[in-house]
Each structure stands twice: as C-alpha cells, then as structure tokens.
UniProtKB/TrEMBL annotation, chains A, B:
GO terms for molecular function: aspartate-tRNA ligase activity; ATP binding; nucleic acid binding. It is an enzyme of class 6 (ligase). Catalyzes the attachment of aspartate to tRNA(Asp) in a two-step reaction: aspartate is first activated by ATP to form Asp-AMP and then transferred to the acceptor end of tRNA(Asp). The keyword Methyltransferase does not apply. Its EC number is 6.1.1.12. It holds the Pfam family tRNA-synt_2. Homodimer. One of its GO terms (cellular component) is mitochondrial membrane. This is Aspartate--tRNA ligase, mitochondrial. HAMAP family: Asp_tRNA_synth_type1. GO terms for biological process: aspartyl-tRNA aminoacylation.
Amino acid sequence: MGIPRFLRHFCVFPKLTTTIQHQPRGIPERLSPSCGSNMHFHNWLNGLYQCLSKPSGRTTQLTCGSLSRSLVLSSHRRNPEFSSFVARTNTCGELRSSHLGQEVTLCGWIQYRRQNIFLVLRDFHGLVQVVIPQDESAVKKILCEAPVESVVQVSGTVISRPPGQENPKMPTGEIEIKVKSAKLLNSCKKLPFEIKDFVKKTEALRLKYRFLDLRSFQMQYNLRLRSQMVMKMREYLCNLHGFVDIETPTLFKRTPGGAKEFVIPSREPGKFYSLPQSPQQFKQLLMVGGLDRYFQVARCYRDEGSRPDRQPEFTQIDIEMSFVDQTGIRSLIEGLLQYSWPSDKDPVVVPFPSMTFAEALATYGTDKPDIRFGMKIVDISDVFRNTEVKFLQDALSKPEGSIKAICIPDGTKYLKKKDIESITKFATDYSDQEVLPVFLKANRNWNSPVVKFIKDEQKLELIRLMEIQEEDMVLLTAGEHKKACALLGKLRLECADLLEARGVLLRDPTLLSFLWVVDFPLFLPKEENPGELESAHHPFTAPHTSDIHLLYTEPEKVRSQHYDLVLNGNEIGGGSIRIHDAKLQHYILATLLKEDVKLLSHLLQALDCGAPPHGGIALGLDRLICLVTGAPSIRDVIAFPKSFRGHDLMSNAPDSVPPEELKPYHIQVLWPKDTEA
Amino acid sequence: MGIPRFLRHFCVFPKLTTTIQHQPRGIPERLSPSCGSNMHFHNWLNGLYQCLSKPSGRTTQLTCGSLSRSLVLSSHRRNPEFSSFVARTNTCGELRSSHLGQEVTLCGWIQYRRQNIFLVLRDFHGLVQVVIPQDESAVKKILCEAPVESVVQVSGTVISRPPGQENPKMPTGEIEIKVKSAKLLNSCKKLPFEIKDFVKKTEALRLKYRFLDLRSFQMQYNLRLRSQMVMKMREYLCNLHGFVDIETPTLFKRTPGGAKEFVIPSREPGKFYSLPQSPQQFKQLLMVGGLDRYFQVARCYRDEGSRPDRQPEFTQIDIEMSFVDQTGIRSLIEGLLQYSWPSDKDPVVVPFPSMTFAEALATYGTDKPDIRFGMKIVDISDVFRNTEVKFLQDALSKPEGSIKAICIPDGTKYLKKKDIESITKFATDYSDQEVLPVFLKANRNWNSPVVKFIKDEQKLELIRLMEIQEEDMVLLTAGEHKKACALLGKLRLECADLLEARGVLLRDPTLLSFLWVVDFPLFLPKEENPGELESAHHPFTAPHTSDIHLLYTEPEKVRSQHYDLVLNGNEIGGGSIRIHDAKLQHYILATLLKEDVKLLSHLLQALDCGAPPHGGIALGLDRLICLVTGAPSIRDVIAFPKSFRGHDLMSNAPDSVPPEELKPYHIQVLWPKDTEA
C-alpha cells in the first residue's frame, strides 16, 4: 500500500550509511562503469562475499592470502571457483602479493589507460593494473589501441609494483601484471553516450541501456547479493527443514475478482488463461495432496498500470505448511531471515515483536508501522470532553468520534512556517477536509489559532499525556477514529521526512525493525458499495477461532488469522492460516462475499477430501532485497525491470503484433474510438 | 523431437527395474492412495532421502537408529527437521524400536482401519499402526467413525507390538502407537470415486482430481526427488562455481519468427507482451553486462498446440558463461549432473562421449542416438555398385544415393510375420514410399523378394561388413543418404520395441548413456521454401571457427558451435557458443536469414559495446527428471500439468472471460465463422 517511504527517506541521508562497511550506498558512482575513481570496487565485492559467506551469528574464519581463498559463499564454507571452466586463471580482483611470480591469464574490460604505459582491467571481482610492454610491439598495439570498455585477455606474470608506486586504496594495489601476450576479444565499437555524461543520465536511459548499467558496482552488488540470499533461504527451507520446492503453473484461470490479472488468449475461441497474482490456490491444493511443506520462489503477475515501485511481474518467497499455526509460521520466517541475512548487517534479532492491527492503527495510523521512532498517536479525546471548541465538540459527538494528536520532538525548532503550511496542505489534500490539523507550540507561548480556547488544565493534561517537552510541536486532529489515525499516521511520516531533511536522525537505516501485525479484520466494506463485504486479504483466510460465532451475526467484526510482516515501515510479507473446512469456505464465498462458487469448485471439493489444517506466507522478495541493499527502487534489484508504465525500454516491449499472428488466438484489437477518427 | 521412445519402452520392462532399490517403478500402485498394500511406502521414502543425501561418488555414513536421524538431505549432511514448527513431534514413517516409550504426536491421513482395533495412519513419510483404545470411548469414537482419508492427530506412546505381531515388511512394523488422545482435524466427506476404482481411472481423472493423485507414492517421490535434484544443482552452480541466479522477465516482446509465443495484451491498444520460449536474449545481455556466470531455473513458454509430452509451460536449467568454449560448457554440465544425480542410481561417468551430427545421422539415423544398443546403420552401397536390381541401381545413380542396412540380432527368431508387415507398413507410411525396406533372412536360406538378385559374393560381403550371425535379420533400404538413414533410424527403434516386447533385453533402463552430439549444421533449408535458409537452432549460434569463410560462399555447408546433450536417446539439453561480433550477427540476421533486424537492435547494439565471448546451455528439467524417476510422462514430474490439449482439467483453464474484462486490453474475441452461422 502506497509509496515505500523508507526508500525515499533513505536517499535523504546518505551519511547515515557510512556505518556499513564495504558497500557503496547512495548512487553517486553507480552510473559510471568506466570512470577512473572506482578503486573501492574491490571493497564492496570483497565485502559482499565475506558478508554472505558467514552463517548468521557466527564468525567466519577467513584465511588470509588471496581474496578468492577467503571467499566463502555459503554455509558450505567451500570456496566457489570463479575461474573454473573458462579461459582465465584468476579474476582481476583477487590477485595479491601472495600471487607474486605466478603466471596468470585474465579476461576483463578496459577500465582506463594511463599514458599508454598502464592499463586497468576490470571484471566483476575488481580491478588490476596491467603494465603495457613497451618492447612488444604487437601486444602494445593491442592494448594501446583498444577503446575503453573493450574486452581483452592478457597473460603474464604477477609482479610487485616498484617501491613507492603501491596503491593502498586498491586491494590489488601491491601488484601489477607484466604482460607477455594479449588478445582483443571484442572491441567496444561505440558507447551510446559519453561515459562521463552517463552519470547524469535519467533512469530511462539506464533502463534503455541496461546491458551497460548492469556493469555498475551497485547493480552487480545488488544482483549478486540477491542470488546469495535466495540461495541461503533455499538451504534453510530445503536442507534444514525438509521443505519441497514445487513449481506451480503460471498459465491458470482467472480467479474471482481477479481484475488485475493479465489474460492470455488460447487457441480456443473465447478461452483465456490468466497469469495468477500468486500461487495461492495451488499451494493450498498441495497441502490437500499431502506435500505438507511447500516453498517456491514464485513469479507472480499483477496488472496495476502505473503504480510506483510496482512491477507487472514480481517474485515472492511462497511458503505453505500443514498442521501449523500462526506461531509456527512466525518462527519459521524469523529463522529464515536470521539464517539468510547478510552478516555485515546487524544480526536479525528474534522473535520479532507483534502488534494487533487495531493497535497499529491507533498508535501509528497504518497497518505497517515504522517502529524505529516514536511520535506515536495519542488519543486525547478525554482531555476535551468538555471543550468549547466547536469542531472538537462536533467530532466527539459523532460515532467513533475522537481527538488525536502526535508530538513532534523539537518540532518548533526544526519546522519552518512553510513546513507547517505544507503539512496543513498535505492534511487537507489527503483527508478531503474531513479532519483538520491544529498546530500547537508547546513552549511557554502556545501558538495556534485555537489555543485560546484550550484551558490551562487541558494544556497541562496534554503535556502529561503526551510527554511534551519544550520546543516540541503537537499535531492535533479530530474526527472519526480510523480517519483521524490514518491522517496522523501519514503526517507522522511526513514530519519525519521534514525533520530528517533538517538533519535530525529519526530512522536509522541500519536498524532492522521487524514487526508482526496480526488480528486484521476478515472483511472490509466494499469501497463502491459499503453495504457489502469483501475480503480484507483473500477469501481463503481463516477467521480468528474466537470470532467464528460472529460470522453468522456480525461478520464485519470478525478478526482474521492473517498476519503481515513489516520491516521499517514496509510490508515485506503476509500470510494466514487458511480455511480447511469446505462448509465454512462455501458459506464465506457464497453467502458473505456473494462470489461465483463455480469458479472455485475444485478448491471446495478438495477441502472435502481430507484437507489438513494449513497456513502459509509469502515474502515480497524484490522489496526485501531492496531494503537489504538500501537500493532506492525495486528496479535496482531486478536485472531487467519494466518502467513505471510497464515498458521494457531496452527491447521496446510491449510491442505491436501483426494481425495474422493474432488470428490463431481468435482475437482482434479494438482500437479506441478517438484514434479511429 | 518426437515421442520420447525411452519412456514408452520403459513401461514394457518393469522387471528390468527391480535392480533399483527403494523405488517403485512402473505404475501399478500409483493410483491407489488408500489401498492397503502400501507397506513399501516407507521403503521408497527411505530410499529417496538416503539416495539424495549422498554426495555423488562417496558413501554416506548413515547412523542407525531412527530414520529421521539417517535422513541426510544434502551435502550439508545435516538432518532436515520434518517436524519443526508444526503440531506433530514425529512423522508417521520414522518411528522405530529406538523410540519405544516416547510420547509422540502424529498427524496424518487414515489409510485403513482393521476391525475397529487398529488404524493405519499415513503421511508423506510412511505408515504407522495406531491401536484404537477400547476403553476410551471418546477417542474410540473419533478413530472408528472418521472415514478413510480423514485427517487426524493422535498423541500417545510408542510401544512394542506383541510378540508374533511384528510386520517385518513395514519399516515401522516393530512398533505401534498406544493412543491417549485423538482429534479429528478434518473429515473426508466424500471422495470423487471409489478408491478401489481409482486404480483403473484414466489420466484425465487423475488430472481432474490432482489434489488426490498427489497423495500417491509415485507423485510424492517424483516431486520430492525433483526438488532435491534441483537443490543440488543450485549448490553446484552457486556455491561451488560462483554462478549467479538471476531472474529474467517473462513479459517480453515477440522474437523474430516467434510464432509459438503466447501473446499478452497490454493496456495500450494494439500492444502485446510475449511469453518467451527461453531467456536467450536476456542471458546474452547479462554477459554483456558483466554478470559472467549466470544460471536460472527458468520458466519457459511454447504454444505448440497438442504435441505429445510437451507442456505449454516448462522449466529449463538455463546457464550462460563468458570466456568459455565448448569444452568448458561440457565439463561444467558433466560435473553438474554427476553432483546432482541421486546416488541410488548408477553413478554418472564423465566425460561423456561425443559424436558429430553427421556421424549420428549416418550411424543411428537421428540427432539423438540411443547408444545403449547396437543395430547401427551400415552403408552397403559398395556391395551393390554393380547390382542388377533395378531400384538399387536407380538409388545409387542419384545424387547422395546410397544403400543402407541394419542388422537385427536374432531377428528371424523373434520377429513374426505380422511384425515384418508392421515394419514394412511403418516404413511405407513414414517415408512416403521414397525408400523401400527389404527383408533378408541371414540364415542358410536367405529369404526376401529380392534375394534371388543378390549374388553369393554380395551375400558374403554383407555378412562380413555387417557381422551378420545366424538367425539375424537385415533391413535394407536404398535412397538419398539422409532419408535412408532417417528411415533406418526409425526402424531401428521400432525393431528394438518389437524385440523387447518379445522379452529380449536391448536397452537397460538403469544404464545412463549420455552423449554429446556436436557439429550441427548452422542453417537448414526452409521447409516451405528450400531456396532460403533458416537457423538450425537459433540465429545467435556461432559458426564453427573453421567454417566461417564458408558463410560468404556456401552458408549451407557451415557447421555451428551448437551441442546437444542426449541421454538414452532423449535430447535433454542443448546450447551453443554464441556470436559476440555485432557485424557477423548483423550479416547472419539481415543477409542470410532475411530477418527484421529492428526487432533485435538492442542485442546488436549490446554486442558493439564490449560483449565478451560467451556460450551456454539449457537442460530440459521436466524431461530430465522424467528419465531419472522413470516416469512414463513429463506430466508425472509436474505438480499441476496441463492435458494434451493444454487444459488444466482440475480448474478448467483456459476459461471464458466476460467481454468487459477484455475491454481494458482493447481486444475482442473474433468468433470463428462456422460458429456464427
């Protein structure tokens, strides 16, 4: 739901990231694959493999010597052989003094050349300096004439750099390569733009030339870390806990209410497959089939048009278990994240705290609270029970009416007049004037249009209730409980942005604040028709056992066995215990949700054939990796992402298809009227 | 290409499979999830986890005692915890005498009940006997009244069976469970057919009720083995050799000549995504992007209508490397298969032999020879240079004309008249009478319509050339080289079927005959227009280095750097070294293949930006697992396969979609004329 706030804020505070070693945060150099200042290239790679190699919570025994020897890529603690089967003996980044005298063959891209004497060669592993032999004219010609970003193979000896010429900033800075032979593997004919300019290019240009953008440190780091984390998740699930990795179809049929599903015409007239939004039905059917511990790194599809930071296809770590309850799923996931988390980050502390949906809404105004900082919402209705302020009176007199407030620490110090105007405008835009924010300054001179109507004892009570300090600022609003909370939840994050833009540290991006949010409502009133109900999540979610009786009397009050996993204010996963009783499932589908039961007859039938109790969860992998790497967008952790508008800017997908290729599928394009004229 | 012959033959010889321990081959019991004779259920599971646990080529040190202790699921050699996080303490199949006295909680399905005294409980791990307490009326009621296939939870003590009542055939046969409490987790209300009848049900019924079919031993075994093998492949690629697992998009644009690609309408009028047949372009672009060791367990899509043993979506182990040659890829794959192969099978012996395409065609009449048995094609043209037989004379006088033969050992003994008629008919049907088979009996009385025209010295020469023994039968044909070979290649397999149907062992299914086939032609004449060329595989395949000059003079003679991996006559993989030179790629696309280069402009541009030399391969996972498990069809190694006609018989996909749901995609159904009338 909504914009990933954490990511936006993250960019505001690059300085906060310097506590993380070996990993370039922010994006200053990501777009310059060939600029000369990339000596810390080694560092991040070194850091990447080191941090990923350590089983969580333990120390790695790194052998000194060559980098490749110290790369331990999984709990196997066996060194991956990066140069097996190929035409190099070593990677560019791994050579050290311990290799002195060794004959090596390297393959890489020409990073830059200095006065036709030195050449710096790059691969994914790092940079190495190559001495261009001045007396071997053929070799010299190759190495001096090949344009930057050309691919060459060089063979030679690892030698010491002359005294005084070592480069301590460069992991390979003590050595260089005395070349005996060289081969131009491919000349870089033309780059689509000057490399220097590339830094300033838009994301659109990066996406169009993704094959070049992938050469950047950040993309290499992100994609390699993603691969490693997923591998460790697989080890945890498959090897440690006996889960079975099962692939489920992506050519499926539309699900009830599946308005966001892509359709795929088949060769039968009028018959379409759909690309499922998740393997939900399949994983439940696997439980019925006795495959009682399922997982899949599942590709899912959602046609959401141009919602920011969404992709039409995305990946989730999809999990389902039989004979499990909420506690079991939570422990499993806590262990999974702890096991797979890169060890250069703060270790994942388990168990994660949990909070009910009602509490999250009342305290943070959202179902995905960022609990790294305070500024909690406080209900101050009681302070104003006897208020004379008209709009507060009005609010309290209505059903669910309330007065709420948040306290912004040092708000009067950091927030300027235009900030307050922007907050007011945001509140007005957001809440359509149904709720009205009020500003109070909590210093000696309370400062607000309504302050004169607030009695002294009310002020004292507010200071007590909200622990208001000098220079704090209070945002107050009145209205229906949920709306008032939701608005203050938004304002809380808005204000955090503003404070951080002023240099106040509120949300430490190195902190991992995991949180379970539980006890969601099972149903919500339909937006278009509030008299009817729709599933808050999906119709297979089991009701809270203690609320089952309410299903037949006040279904809108039933809480569900759904749970969300939140990390620093981002929803990174969600799941539930499912309904395994066919009669209950039928009642909810047919009677409460008024869905066409026929579309799900196979599932209802399956539940009647000895379906075990079961539950599961799905983690959004793209978002999770985004948070782990500190990438500003999920597009930075996906090799070939689509643009905001769902386009592949590199290949130009989607594209026109000639009518004759549509014929076998019995469809034709229905051109919009306005383009026909 | 064509029908997976191995699989057909496999079913003919269940007796050959008895050498494989712990794994039920054939299908006699696969369709009876609840029949009472499934005591070897334990065995296969035991075997499965044991065989998968051993690193190839080494012996596993299994600890005695409980099965769960001896389950070592990967090279980690750490026991997976099958009962972590869930409401059981143990699986049904793991209990032994060593557990005597333990308090256990089990969850499972009621397999059967004997006289309301015993109940056999089943989970994926095996069966266990539960004693129904006669004096606890509540517990007794639950356990006696729950229908078969209901799900129950029982808690109790592991006790010895009374002397004489042990069941040595049952791994848990020494113990039983003295139940203290029981809970009916879900009653099996109705099964869609009588379990007894299920055995005889068609595959269509199995697919319709897949959630029940998955409970069968065979499906559990196949899917669990698949998961384990893929996990070991990942360990090999990712942990041992530094490959990066990268997900590539499945919403792409159509590729030139991509007539078999599903189209997906987008929300832009007339613009469509395509589901790619493989990540070919993406993996090459990753190489350009410096991600020099890529792999992915990739979902691919091909709309082939109703070709047997194909699925509209399938999975391949997709691999690409930079700076590699054919030898490197071959070694990588040989190591991969050796590492991941289940250790209860014969170990994979490397390196695999290799054979040129020309040799495979000349000797076996196919590009995927089954080299487990002889009956090779012999060119006997020279024997008949001076023949008086008219049709042989005619054949030899034509370009590429030849006379070929295969020798069927003991053919006269095993092949009956009707077999010969059926072979003749097959040959006539297959070759459209362009080539004519001739039957000779190689015993004292040569027996064939044309035998009188064959001179004695010709007979002697044939016997010498083809090493004909008494009672052998020779199949002879004359015609253009390729056609003659292709026909005899088919007849060779036909005859092998016939001989094996008579009980002759020709193709040992436990034998693993891997074979590399290399040096394919780069181009083939187009079927519809033989004057033009098309790629034999795909347009990115690099030409053989020694044939490059022919590209500009006689392109049809150019051999490619493509290679296929064949196992027992099945193509299980294929790949190539790719073109990394933009000019060469452009020449082949535009000049030789006359493709629209614009559709691939991004790839051509990428090649010009410093593309490293690279190559790769894709293994067909479904087919591979099929061969490893001995399953008769790839539908038996896929959890939710489509039918022959591409239908999901369980959910009824593809399905109708209301016109209003098509509107956002700007398409409408074009109903065929004949249904409009």
